[in-house]
Write a structure and sequence with these properties.
There is one protein chain. By secondary structure, the protein is of the alpha+beta class. 22% of the residues lie in helices and 27% in strands. The protein contains 17 helices and 39 strands. A hairpin with a 4-residue loop joins strand 25 and strand 26. Helix 16 runs parallel beside helix 17. The radius of gyration is 31 Å and the shape is elongated. It starts with 15 loop residues before the first strand and ends with a strand.
Amino acid sequence: MNVPPYELADPHSVLGAHAATGGVVVRAYRPDAESVRVLPMDVELEPRNGGGVFEGTIPGAQLPLDYELEVRYPAGDTYRLRDPYSFLPTLGELDIHLAVEGRHEELYERLGAHPRELNGVVGVAFAVWAPNAASVSVVGDFNGWDGRLNPMRSLGSSGLWELFVPGAEEGSRYKFELRTREGKLRLKADPLAFRAEKPPANASVVFRPQHDWGDDAWLARRRKSEPLNGPVSVYEVHLGSWRLNPAEGNRPLTYLEAAEELAEYATYMGFTHVELLPVMEHPYAPSWGYQVTGFCAPTARFGPPDDFRAFVDRLHQAGIGVILDWVPAHFPKDDWALARFDGTALYEHADPRRGEHPDWGTLIFNFGRNEVRNFLLASALHWLREYHADGLRVDAVASMLYLDYSRKAGEWVPNVHGGNEDLDAIAFLKQLNEVAHGREPGLLMAAEESTAWPGVSRPVYLGGLGFGLKWNMGWMHDTLAYFQRDPVYRRHHHHQLTFSLVYAFSENFVLPLSHDEVVHGKGSLLAKMPGDPSQQRANLRALFAYMWAHPGKKLLFMGGELGQESEWRSDGSLDWHLLERPEHSGIQSLVRDLNLHYRDEPALWEVDFESGGFRWLEPNDAAANVLAFMRISKDGDRQLVCACNFSPLARPGYRIGLPRPGRWRELLNTDSDFYGGSGVGNMGGVTAEEKPWHDQRYSAEVTLPPLGVVWLAPE
C-alpha cells in the first residue's frame, strides 16, 4: 500500500473485512502497534511493509463478520476494540439527497456527533461536510488525538464524510482533521456540535440531550396563539452580566441559577418574554455572542446544554416566552472554526468583496450554496425545536440584504441584474421564515433591519421577507434624539415624535430600547436625559410611558428599568444596589406597572399594526411640548388616552378631547410620588363633559405633570 489509509477518501475499501478466496481477509491500520489479533477467531494479522497495516485471512469465514481487534503495543499495553471499518455508512441516501439540495431540516440530527448503537455496538456516529478535502479523520479523547487512526469515509460528490467509532463516549472531546488538496492539515471544531468546551478551549464535545421537558402546556398554548395580536413586552438580557454571584468571586450566574432568578424577576416585572443576546458558543466574550462559532451549541460559560434547556423550561413554566438572538449574517475568522473549513472558501465567499465584512472583521456566509443555506436553516430549527425557543431575533438583516452594505464604490459586486440586492440572502430569509412559521406555529420571528426595505414583516406570499416583526430603529433614533434635547429646544423637534406615526403601520414594529443604545460611550438611558438628576429620572419615566402607549410591541434592555446610571458593561453586573434608593426603585415600579396595565388593556395591543387602533388627539402643540393620542381596542369598546407633557412646567387645566362622557380614571401618572415624582396629578381622575375638542364630542380639563405622562381610561 503506497498511500497510508488516513490519506484515502475511502479507507473502508482497504480496511475492515473483505471477501477473499477461501474466507474473509481483515486489514487494520494501527501504526506503532506490535501485533494485531482478530477475536474470537484468534487469528493474528501480519504486518505489511512495516507501514502500520496488518492483514490476515479468516479461513472459511463469511461476510458480515462479527469480530474485535486486540492490539498490543511494544510497552506491553493491550487494547480490545471493535473495528470502525466493519460498519455500513450511518447516512442514508435520503439524508445525502436532502443535504445536497439544501432541504434537510434535521441536518443537525445527521451531521455532527451522535451517540448510538449499531448492531449491538455502542459508539458515536461522526459526519461532516468538507467537499474539497482530500481526506478527513476524526480525532479526540477516544484515539489519543491521532489523525492516523480514524480516517473517515467520503460519500462521493455530496462532500459528506462519515465514520462510526465504537467505544467513543458521550463527553469525549473531538475535532475533525482535514487534509487539503495541497496536503496541509487543518484541525476544525464540528460546525454542528451540540456542545463545546468552555472558552478559550475550543474542542467539540460529544453530547446526547437528557432533559425531561415540563412545558407541554406552554407549547400547546403557543401553537394555538396569534402572538402578533397579543401583548408582547420583551426584557432583553445578556446572561453574563445580568447578575453576578458575589458569594463566588462575582462570577456570572449559571443557567440553572439564572433560570430561577430571571423567571421570578421577569414574572414580577410583568414582561411577557425574555430575549437573550446570543447564547450560541463564541470564543470572544466582548463580542457579546455576536461572533458565533457553535451554531448548535449553547455557550459552556454558564453550564452544559441541558442546563440551558432547563433554563428555557423554567421560564416557560413561569409563563415567560424565550426569544433567542441568532446571527446568520457573518462568522469570525478563527482558524479552528468555519473559516476556510476544508482549505477553501466553503461557508464564505471566496471574493472578499462578498465574503468579508468591512466593519466587523468577519466573514459572510455564501447564501448561494445549498449546503450553507441548509446549515443555517438547520441551526435555526435546532434552537426552535431542541431548546423550545419561542422565536428568533435575526441580527444584522440589513447587512444581509445589500451587497454594498458599508462598502464604497468598487468594493462590492452587483447582482445578475446590476443591482445591490443580495438575491441569495433574500431567498434564504424567505425560506427561513416560511419553514420556521410552517413547522413551529406561534413563533415570533423578528428582524433587526434598519433600512426602508419594504415588506420585511409581510408574508412571503405577498412579496415580503416573511418576518413577523421588525425592529423600529427609526422610532428609536428619533425618540432618543428628541428626549436628549433640553426641553427648551424640543418645540423645534416636535416632528421627531409625530413622524413615527407616518410609517407606524407599514410594518409590524417592535419599539426597541436595546443594548446597542447603552454602550460604546453612548451612556445609559438615564444619562442621555437632560436636566438635573430629578429631571433626568422624570424624562426617563415619561419616555417609558410614552413608549408603552405607542403602537408596536415593546423591548427594553436590562438595566433600563433600574434607571441605570452608568452604561452597560458586559464584564460586570447591573447596578442592583440602585434599588436601595427610592428614586430608582420608583422607576422599576413604573416599568412593572406599565407592563401590568399594558397586559390588562387590549386597547394597547390588539390593533398594533393598523391605523384603526390609534387616533391623534393633539399632535401639534409643539410650543407646549405636549402630545395626546388614543389607543383603541379591536371592537372599539375600549379606549386609553395617553397625554404627554415633555416640558418641565406643569400644565393645569389642559383640555383634552375624549370619546365618551363621565368619569375617566387616571390609570397611570409617571409623576406620582410612588414612582419618585413630584406628585402633580388629577386626584385619581377627571370627568368628561359634553364639550367638543380634538374632534371628540366630549372633553375634560387635565392637569399634565411636568416632564410627565398620564394614562386615562373610562371607568
